[in-house]
Structures are given as structure tokens and as C-alpha cells.
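User: I've been trying to design a sequence by hand for this structure and keep getting stuck. Would you show me what you'd pick, starting by listing the structure so we're on the same page?

Assistant: Good idea, let's start from the same input. This is the structure you sent:
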């Protein structure tokens, strides 16, 4: 479907920009701490963003099943651009919390409606499109971790947010012009509108499986965003790397995450074709990688590499549990709602990791934080096994 590919491409670009305007704060976290902001207050800003994003997923998910999803995405892109432009003017961490909280809500308007928008594609095209959208997020993260060190060398951290705000505004304009034309040409546009109105009863037989999946996603969120957020700070504080260098080394995380998404998608489409089993295997691989990081010979390069492998596994799990699994709710008209609920679970884990890892590192040291990573992966594997048995 030619127009379907265009739609998937536009969604991937929009998600790429959304990561520029969301993960830029995590990328400058070490620089903010060096500039005088207390680490606990800097972590609080990130935590507020995760909480508002996670809570907003629930609202966005419900709205995505009832309102035109393309308009919700347009509103989210515009608002996140505005919040990025406002953040450099904040004079305190509390003001940053307010602005970044609204940014989290704006970002939440993207993923659930996007899943709803892509659900008009057939199953294989849908899986491929979601994988490509997830790749867009990885490329966005690479963009952040390459762009931020460059900007920090020639300017201040405030410039990062101005640049990202400009990119977001440009994407808002492109989305507003191109998407209406694409949707008009798609043969199933009218069916999409009809499904939004004619909703069936929630499929109760999926409730037990969904509960297992939710807890597995929480474990995935703890590792995915916990490792991504704190790896630059770890390299800076433990190995005394310069902020720009530690951020640049951390770019291996999103690079391998892209590989993880593409490999997982191919394995699912060609081999296993069971999202719970795929997620279980990836959690098992994360246990092995986490165990290597605990060993005493782990240096900065080994740490960056295996931390990147852990997050690659988590991104693979993400596409299995947050994009493939919700499609089971398509016929009942609950796909956006479930995508929002499940994505919110990711950010329950993210919130736990962002504030929890900072407290543990402050009181007990980074070795305890790293030792927790394989333990969390074991818990996630157990829940995925439970979901597989309930299927």
C-alpha cells in the first residue's frame, strides 16, 4: 500500500522529532548538575516528565479511540515544541518541573494515536511500520547524543532546547500539511472513522494476560530508561570523563537499540511469531549482559557496550509488548486505549529508575545500581513467561 508506506514514514519522522524534544533533557543532565543544579533536583525534573508522560498516555489512549488521531498528534507536536522553547528561560528547578511536566503531556499525545492510525495496515505491514517508527526513536536518540556534545562545545545547554524546539515546529508544519492528503487517499480511512464510533465490549479473556504484560513492561521501563538516563552520569562520575565525551560514548546505546528493534521484528515475523516468547528470550539476554557488568574487569568501554546491549533488548521487548500485543484489541476498538495503558506502564518503570537509581547511587554507590539491573531482568522474564502460559 503506497499511501500506507507514506503514513508509516511520516509517523517515523514525527517520532524521531519527539525523541529530540524529550530526551534532550536527559542528554544534558550531567551538564546541568555541573552548572550548579543539585543532582536530586535535576532528577526530579526528569521524574516529573516521566510521570506526566505516563499519566498522559492513559488520557491520550482513550482520546485516540474517539477523536481523529492525526489531530491529536499535531497538537502534541506543537505543544512539545513550545515547551522546549520555554525551558531555557526557567530560573529554577521548580519552573523546569512545570514546563517539563507539560512537555510530558504533549509527548503523550503521540504514541497511542499513532498506533491507532497505523492499525489500518495489515498485520505484517503494521508490525514493520511500528518497527520503523521505533527505529525513528532510536535515530532521534542518536541525534540527541551527537548534537548535544557539539552544542556544549560551542555554546550553553540552553541552545540545545532552542534547536530542538525549531525541529519540532518544522515537523508540526510538515505533519499538518502532508497527513490530511495521505489519509484522504487511503482506502480504509472511512473504515477507521467507523471503528472509532462502533466499539465492542472489552475482551475480558485478555485481562489475565494483560496484567502479566503490564508488569513485564514496568521491568522493561526500569531498565530501558534507567540505563539510558544514567549511563552518561555513571561514566562522568565513576571514570571522570568529560560531560561531552561521556554523552558521546553513550551514543552506542541508541545505535544498538535500533539493531535490537530490527532483529526482534525479523525474528518475530519469520521465526517465533509470539510476542511473549520473544520478550522472555530478550529478558534472558539482558540478564547475561547485566551479569557481565557486575564483574570487576568491566571498564568504561565494556560498560558502555553491555549497557547498550541491555537497552537494545529492552527496545526489542518494547516493540513486542507495546506495539504487537495491543493489536489484539483492534477489533474491539480498544487498541489506542491499550497502547496508552501499556506505554504508561513503561514510564512507571522509568519513574522508579530515574529517582530510585539516583538515591541508591548517592547512598550506596553505583555498584549497587548496576547489580540491580540483571535482577530486574529476571523479574521481567518471569512475567513474560506468565503471559505466555496464560495465552
Amino acid at each position: 500500500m503506497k499511501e500506507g508506506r507514506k503514513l508509516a514514514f511520516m509517523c517515523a519522522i514525527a517520532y524521531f522529532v519527539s525523541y529530540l524534544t524529550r530526551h534532550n533533557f536527559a542528554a544534558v543532565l550531567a551538564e546541568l548538575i555541573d552548572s550548579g543544579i543539585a543532582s536530586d533536583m535535576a532528577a526530579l525534573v526528569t521524574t516529573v516528565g516521566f510521570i506526566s508522560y505516563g499519566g498522559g498516555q492513559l488520557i491520550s489512549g482513550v482520546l485516540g479511540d474517539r477523536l481523529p488521531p492525526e489531530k491529536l498528534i499535531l497538537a502534541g507536536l506543537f505543544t512539545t515544541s513550545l515547551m522546549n522553547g520555554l525551558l531555557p528561560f526557567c530560573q529554577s528547578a521548580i519552573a523546569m518541573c512545570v514546563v517539563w511536566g507539560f512537555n510530558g503531556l504533549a509527548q503523550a499525545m503521540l504514541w497511542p494515536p499513532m498506533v491507532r492510525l497505523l492499525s489500518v495496515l495489515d498485520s505484517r505491514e503494521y508490525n514493520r511500520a511500528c518497527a520503523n517508527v521505533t527505529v525513528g526513536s532510536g535515530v532521534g536518540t542518536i541525534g540527541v547524543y551527537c548534537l548535544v556534545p557539539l552544542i556544549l562545545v560551542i555554546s550553553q545547554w540552553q541552545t540545545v532546547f532552542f534547536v530542538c524546539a525549531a525541529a519540532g515546529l518544522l515537523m508540526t508544519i510538515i505533519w499538518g500539511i502532508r497527513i490530511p492528503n495521505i489519509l484522504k487517499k487511503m482506502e480504509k480511512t472511512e473504515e477507521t472513522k467507523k471503528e472509532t464510533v462502533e466499539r465492542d465490549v472489552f475482551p475480558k479473556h485478555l485481562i489475565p494476560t494483560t496484567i502479566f504484560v503490564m508488569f513485564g513492561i514496568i521491568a522493561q521501563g526500569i531498565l530501558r530508561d534507567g540505563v539510558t538516563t544514567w549511563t552518561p552520569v555513571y561514566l562522568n562520575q565513576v571514570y571522570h570523563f568529560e560531560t561531552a565525551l561521556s554523552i558521546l560514548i553513550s551514543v552506542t546505546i541508541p545505535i544498538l537499540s535500533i539493531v535490537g528493534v530490527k532483529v526482534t521484528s525479523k525474528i518475530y515475523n519469520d521465526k517465533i511469531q509470539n510476542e511473549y516468547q520473544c520478550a522472555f528470550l530478550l529478558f534472558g539476554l539482558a540478564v547475561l549482559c547485566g551479569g557481565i557488568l557486575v564483574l570487576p574487569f568491566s571498564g568504561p568501554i565494556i560498560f558502555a557496550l553491555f549497557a547498550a546491549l541491555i537497552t537494545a533488548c529492552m527496545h526489542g521487548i518494547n516493540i513486542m509488548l507495546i506495539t504487537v500485543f495491543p493489536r489484539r484489541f483492534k477489533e474491539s476498538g480498544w487498541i489506542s486505549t491499550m497502547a496508552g495503558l501499556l506505554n504508561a506502564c513503561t514510564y512507571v518503570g522509568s519513574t522508579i529508575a530515574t529517582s530510585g537509581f539516583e538515591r541508591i547511587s548517592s547512598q550506596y554507590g553505583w555498584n549497587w545500581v548496576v547489580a540491580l539491573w540483571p535482577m530486574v531482568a529476571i523479574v521481567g522474564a518471569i512475567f513474560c513467561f506468565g503471559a505466555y502460559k496464560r495465552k
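That's my pick for every position. To get oriented when you compare it with your attempt: The radius of gyration is 20 Å. The longest helix spans residues 123-154.
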